[in-house]
Amino acid sequence: MKHAHTTVTPDNPGDPEKPINPNDPNGPKYPADAGEVTQTASRTIHYVYGNGPHVTEQAAPAVTQTTNFTASGYLDKVTGKWVTVDENGNIVGSSVGLTWTTGQYDEVKSPEVAGYSPDQLIVEGVLNVKHDDQTADVTVKYYANEQAAQIIYYDDTLDKELESESAEGEY
């Protein structure tokens, strides 16, 4: 006897309360994961000051990226088990369950903050993010740039420079 199968996708999710084969109401029901065939993951890039008077305060608005995943799989209508199906639609073996797509996060250039330099000019993109990866946070720290200044003491009444000196320090 040849077993038939049903395809589970985001367009055709399974309802764990219903039988896989509607013609056999007492037959196996969809497994719980058959109804959960879409997921979303995210990463947030935080931009904070790494030193100076504003240390740990936000240096620039955070960037949140999301990536979406979909799953598909085949269920044997008789056994209710996940199976592998060939290009002709024949069941050829067992399967561990749903097959998930992968996602990605694009690279993000760190914004410019006057007088500060980021520890990461570019937050690298990530390929092959998996559906069960946890939400990821990245923190970019901005450090004050060294600055040089020439201080000139000028007497307006005499209309002349009295003296000058150099000063250096962080912005």
Describe the structure.
This protein has no helices and 14 strands. The model has no long low-confidence stretch (mean pLDDT 91). β3 (58-76) and β4 (82-85) form a beta hairpin. It starts with a strand and ends with a strand. The chain has 171 residues and is mainly beta. Helix content is 0%, strand content 52%. Strands 1, 2, 3, 4, 5, 6, 9 and 12 form an eight-stranded mixed sheet that branches.
Strand percentage: over 45%
Query: What order do the helices and strands follow?
Result: EEEEEEEEEEEEEE
* Global geometry: rod-shaped
**Mean pLDDT over the full residue set:** 91
Number of strands: 14
Brief overview, please?
The chain has 171 residues and is an all-beta fold. It is built from no helices and 14 strands. A hairpin with a 5-residue loop joins strand 4 (82-85) and strand 5.
Keywords:
171 residues; mainly beta; eight-stranded mixed sheet; 52% strand
Topology:
Layout: E1 5-8, E2 38-49, E3 58-76, E4 82-85, E5 91-94, E6 99-100, E7 103-105, E8 108-109, E9 116-118, E10 122-123, E11 126-129, E12 136-144, E13 146-155, E14 160-170
Parallel strand pairs: 2-12
Antiparallel strand pairs: 1-3, 2-3, 3-4, 3-6, 4-5, 7-11, 8-10, 9-12, 13-14
